Amino acid sequence: MCYVITVEFDVEPQRAADFLRLVCENAQTSRDLEPGCRQFDVCTDPARPNIVFLYERYHDRKAFEAHLASEHFGRFDAATRGMVASKSVHALHRVDPAA
Question: What CATH number does the domain located at 3-93 have?
Answer without folding.
Answer: 3.30.70.100
